[in-house]
């Protein structure tokens, strides 16, 4: 079974950002042949630890486990509210903490929420370049949800969510499993160890 990490950078509770993240996760898990174990990371719960990690260079405690969840997952859904025409500072700071090589090749689905549809391009001009820098594999369909999208079936939000989830599932299933080195595959002969060579 695949593992799917979900990052929600919403600041409120309840949060439309978390609602979108959960719907994207459900669509992705439903499109995977064997489903997925979904683990959600609420960045607001780690806000202080994220700042500490930017100062020290090392994530610690529960935040370290959150980082390992994201970097170790087979796929990632990253959703942020749009503030001042771009992703939130908390969202950006989380990715600043990650080791640049830790995300290479990871399939990623991007989502964003905002008050009006005027900010819908933030996914393409702000979020995509950030994830491209980390050398991830971002799906073509990003999902933006404005306030009006939640109250009407005519906005096409469910269709966009389903399409993006299917795209992420396809990338996750096509990605080769990472090679795991076995440290015991070629052991040093005991005689050589005794001889000190």
TrEMBL record:
InterPro entries: CE1759_FMN_reduct, Flavoprotein-like_sf, FMN_Rdtase-like_dom, NAD(P)H-dep_FMN_reductase. It is an enzyme of class 1 (oxidoreductase). Keywords: Flavoprotein, FMN, Oxidoreductase. Its EC number is 1.5.1.-. Gene3D superfamilies: 3.40.50.360. Pfam families: FMN_red (PF03358). One of its GO terms (molecular function) is oxidoreductase activity. This is FMN reductase. It comes from Actinomadura monticuli. Residues 4-150 form the NADPH-dependent FMN reductase-like domain. The lineage of its organism: Bacteria, Bacillati, Actinomycetota, Actinomycetes, Streptosporangiales.
